[in-house]
Amino acid sequence: MKALDFIIRIKNAAKAQRHEFVMPFSKLNLEIGKVMVKEGFLDEIKEETVEKRKALRVKITYEKRTPRFYDTSIISKPSLRKYIGAKGIKDIEKRGKKTLIISTSQGIMTGKEAQKKNLGGMVIFTIW
Predict the structure, then answer these.
(1) What is the residue extent of each domain of the chain?
(2) pLDDT by residue (tens digit) across 78-96?
(3) What is the CATH architecture assignment of 2-67?
(4) Containing H/E element for 122?
(5) pTM of the entire structure?
(6) How many Cβ atoms sit within 10 Å of the Cβ of residue 8?
(7) Given 8, 17, 45, 66, which residue has the most CB atoms within 10 angstroms?
(8) How far apart are CA 76 and CA 66, in angstroms?
(9) At what angle do helices 27-39 and 2-15 cross, to 10 degrees?
(10) What is the CATH number that goes with domain 72-127?
């Protein structure tokens, strides 16, 4: 699952205090990145060509020299997918300041957006 690699690369770049990095292009990664930009974890994600191949340039958001992206917990893995209904999202969101990233029938979105639209789906990861 390409989303797992994307999340781990962001986490590693943030821990290494890197402000931006480049990774191979994927539509799924681009959509997840757009959601993370909207939530304020990333400054920018854009598609570009590097050595005749598509790539994504990702810029991490920093506040006072610390990344806004603190940590993540991967929920669904290729060997075990976790699905949640619209009612179950409320229970997870109440537990703390974590943001759920969910793949629904209407695309990648946060748990709050999915709950407003009364949608469930596969929980990809949580981020805080």
Answers:
(1) 2-67, 72-127
(2) 889 999 998 888 766 666 6
(3) 2-Layer Sandwich (3.30)
(4) strand 121-127
(5) 0.88
(6) 13
(7) 45
(8) 27
(9) 50
(10) 3.30.1490.10
